[in-house]
Amino acid sequence: MITKLVVIGVGLIGGSFALALKRAGAVGRVVGVGRSRANLDEALALGVIDEASQDAAGAVRDADLVLLAMPVGQMGTVMATIAPHLPAHCLVTDAGSTKSDVAALARRHLASHLTHVVPGHPIAGAEQSGARAARAELFNGRCTVLTPLSENSVEAIQQATDLWRTCGAEVLSMDAADHDRVFAAVSHLPHLLAFALVDEVASRSNAAELFSFAASGFRDFTRIAGSSPEMWRDICLANRPALLDELDAYRARLDALRTALDAADAGALHHAFERASHARNGWTASLNRHAEDSPE
Amino acid sequence: MITKLVVIGVGLIGGSFALALKRAGAVGRVVGVGRSRANLDEALALGVIDEASQDAAGAVRDADLVLLAMPVGQMGTVMATIAPHLPAHCLVTDAGSTKSDVAALARRHLASHLTHVVPGHPIAGAEQSGARAARAELFNGRCTVLTPLSENSVEAIQQATDLWRTCGAEVLSMDAADHDRVFAAVSHLPHLLAFALVDEVASRSNAAELFSFAASGFRDFTRIAGSSPEMWRDICLANRPALLDELDAYRARLDALRTALDAADAGALHHAFERASHARNGWTASLNRHAEDSPE
């Protein structure tokens, strides 16, 4: 039982974490910390948090658990602020989409607390944000990846695992660098590509006409381009080396398609599209089989 | 009233066109022509067509209306096959995703029938295919773009417009080259980009791991990569010049983002993401407003 949970950054993820632990009766009091007073007031009104604070240092002083759920770009500053005030037994975890940088920041700013800092990444993004978007079921059947530090105590890792399971998530453990490479490929790069496409279309003098003819394919392809610019700027910067590698691999693949298209090479285009279509439909089929197997 | 409609290519679009006109009581007999006997049998069993044929030339001999709804790559061959057998009054329209090529093919293969060949593009794609996917409501509230030929009679254009309206579609008229540039940007390029991403991910030695961590963002971004490889190969080849232009503009945009990322230029990344997010969310909001205004 967590007597006091402090959530720093009461958005979709932080708010849903609080609601999920409350629903399970696993937490006593929840204090929300954030930059936006309006968002904290909304979180209070919605019962996502029990108390609002704009003083992270004061809030963590008697906390049992701290979730860092603000944009990755604020992670270092917040860690430095809370470091001198963390009780020795307090578990610190985070919800950042990149993990090597969080590990590095923790080693820099929370050096004396590393046994109890277990980085994590709940795979439950959505383009909505703010406390209003939070819901207790968000993590049900989703995966949370933990990337434990070598300095972590076994007990802290177990406690973090149990907490995310209590939220409804399946918990996996990975090396931070592996995590960052995987998510550069399947999450960060697609976001960059979608932002680039919408930015390009919106820059045209006939943008209104173009958007008026955009249909469901464009809508789904660009859904992630509606995501928070600040959050994704921070993620891209935090995962820069892996994302640059992915971007270069993708550009090479695109260049090969361009060469095939320019040469009107029907076979090469067909093979590439067929490989992709086969892989995409196989993946979807496996997702559906998994959905049939699981309660949700 | 159309006494005999011949649909060549009884897939999602061709089948739905037949069902929509049947629902409206605007058509007598529907003959479906296609390469796959199994698909034609299914179309018959589902009542999408009244008669199946694998002889396009014979089928059009007493037709009042012919819809060409097979992959764009077969357009020329089919036009050449039916040309000597079309009754003078028979309206020919098509459902191809590219229009300059259809106009050129019509001028080549249907030269003596050009008053009655009105190219069209119903904006109602979906990744499903085959007669089984057809439904009478597919075009409700969707847009069909007609790209009339200068040779068309006013009556033929009016008849094509009326027919697509009867199917439930809003009908717009555009120049074929403009059409192809618009759809290269908002449809063909996104398909190419999605195919490239899935092909790249699937080519990795750890593809299974990558797919296992792919979440809803990846799912929506890549939905269109599950589309028919044959259809999209044909579309890309048919719209090659416009698609190459769009691809080059996109690569330049992506190169600029790579430069910003490589330089850790937070401001440039943020501005690009913000422009895209603003445009994307503005577009979605306008779609929602439009949805509230319209019956569907």
Distinct helical segment count of chain A: 12
Helix/strand structural class of chain A: alpha/beta
Mean pLDDT of chain A: 94
Characterize the quaternary organization of these chains. homodimer
Topology of helices and strands:
Two copies of one chain form a homodimer.
Chain A: E1 2-8, H1 12-23, E2 27-33, H2 37-45, E3 51-53, H3 56-60, E4 65-68, H4 75-82, E5 91-94, H5 100-109, E6 117-118, E7 120-122, E8 143-146, H6 154-166, E9 170-173, H7 176-203, H8 207-213, H9 216-221, H10 229-238, H11 240-262, H12 266-293
Parallel strand pairs in A: 1-2, 1-4, 2-3, 4-5, 5-6, 8-9
Antiparallel strand pairs in A: 7-8
Word description of this protein:
The structure is a homodimer of 296-residue chains. Chain A is elongated, with a radius of gyration of 21 Å. The first copy, chain A, has twelve helices and nine strands. In chain A, strands 3-2-1-4-5-6 form a six-stranded parallel sheet. In chain A, strands 7-8-9 form a three-stranded mixed sheet, with helices on one face. By secondary structure, the first copy, chain A, is of the alpha/beta class. The longest helix of chain A is centred in the middle third of the chain and has 28 residues, at 176-203. In chain A, 54% of the residues lie in helices and 13% in strands. At the A-B interface, α7, α8, α9, α10 and α11 of A face α7, α8, α9, α10 and α11 of B.
